[in-house]
Amino acid sequence: MNKKPRENHTKPLRLLKIEQAIQNLNYPNVKRLQTELEVSRRTILRDIEELKIYYNAPIEYDRIRKGYYYSDNTYFLKNMMLSESEVFAVTGILPLMERYNNTPLQKTIEKVYDTLSQMLPNQVEVQSSFMNDVEFIADPIPVIEEQVFNIVFKATKLHKKMNFDYRSIKSTDYKPHELYPYKIYNQKGDWYILGFSPKHNDFSTFTLARMKNITLSETFTPDPDYRQKIHIDPNFGIWNNNSKPQKIELLFDKSINTYILERLWHKNQECHQNKDGTVYLSFESNQMQETLYWVLRFGSAVQILNPPELKENYRQEILKMAERLNNAAD
Question: Taking the model in full, what pTM does it have?
Fold first, then answer.
């Protein structure tokens, strides 16, 4: 009587281990899987059939090597093993993913809701009506073509060189580029790919929303020391540059002191309220341009104390805006 409940509990883990073995081992056969999982030959064969039928796993048998392999080496088992409490937690988190509606993840997220309900026992009903009283407002994000999104992930996973057309933020047309992709970032809803650019002879960052006509070519061997060669600050900007981090020091007006104090702006920040109600904030970053854009949003409620470079950039930007305002008035 206890056999079926135990089987329901261990089977998902066994399927996952079989999937990982086919993915990572060198053509595992039934006997090897039997030994590692301590189950019968019949169970292994049944599990493999289930992976093929219900999980669309592209499992093939190589008669020469006498073992199993994936005909599509980008496949992985899209499986979640969650407790009931974790399911409830996830149902609360998923609406936050609405900020990715302009990416192919939107379809995946919609499927997650269906998957979650199927994972729960029949006697459990998820009451999600409380979410009707909550609305999540996301920042506007650019649209990413599904072909671009999928092929960038594929190129990064398989270490394939990418050729593509790219439109930079200051350009009015697309120009050809090539890239050896290393790392995908999602920063505040925007998707980026960082890799080695032969054109720049350095590691560069590209926005997925500005890419099109991507093709893949030869496979490359990633530089194992690449992390030592990139200089980014995920808190404020992921644009690679060789500038050394500088200490940013800001003084915020007391009119917005609570707003500044209640947030973590940078993982290495120092933030405190002064006796007069103003707020001091400091952190180190090499992303001067991104920091400038961020500081400008606070208008006259912020004062730049350091570094001099940021103060000068801020002054120049204010002068440009004032000039445009005067020209518009004329």
Answer: 0.58
